[in-house]
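Record 1 of the preview.
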Amino acid sequence: MSQKPGTPPALAAFAEELRAHRAHAGISRDELASKVSYSSSLIAMIETGRRSPSKRLGELLDMVFGLPGTFSRLERRLRDVPFPVSFRPFVPHEAEAKALRSYENALIPGLFQTEPYARAVLSTRPNTSEDGIEELLAARMQRQEVLGREEPPLIWSLIDEAALYREAGGAEIMSGQLAHLAEVSRRPNITIQVVPYSAGPHSGLLGAFVIAELDDAAPIGYLETAAEGETVEDPSVLARLALIFDTLRSKALPDVASRDMIMKVAEERWNA
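->
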């Protein structure tokens, strides 16, 4: 299997080292997979730049090949980017996803945030310098490049009605943000639906999440939590997230009605 075109440099370096050391040791992917208790298919995806390694896998590879710190150091380089630490493992999967399904219960999703809105949200992070905020802002805006891909992903985004009313940065910023949200909802590959207050209590109120579906790998998810987020690959967890998403979608307004609500809130709440 050849390395995936466009693989991030840090991930390409990890993959190259893994292929080289496995070949030097004269062991097959199946044998390596057995030694580290990971699947052979996952090892293949990491060697070809289609999946990022976990911190634990880096540590196990150091043990298998007798190279203290080598793969752990390479894995840290993958996370040495201006995203919150917990979100970094999910970043490359979001960037290459063929489809993204998400639910957001408190804020406008990051992929649809305007720069002023994103700055207002990120500025609330405790113990973060102004330069740190600007780095996080640049990273968030960079994430949105996935929307401009030659073949952008299909996106189904569910947003709780509360996010339309939660102020970030003032009325002018909120008005611009909702106008932008309504505009991107018109793109043929993007469906945005509002889960209204009338839906009542539901499981989505426990936290936001994203499911990324990939061309040649199993889905991968990201969960927002009160402390740190979590990237998840467990099929049983992803199956539960998919069920929650489908349940929430059944409670959401249709796409056109959702766009009408977004524009109505922008006009009546933020332009009043």
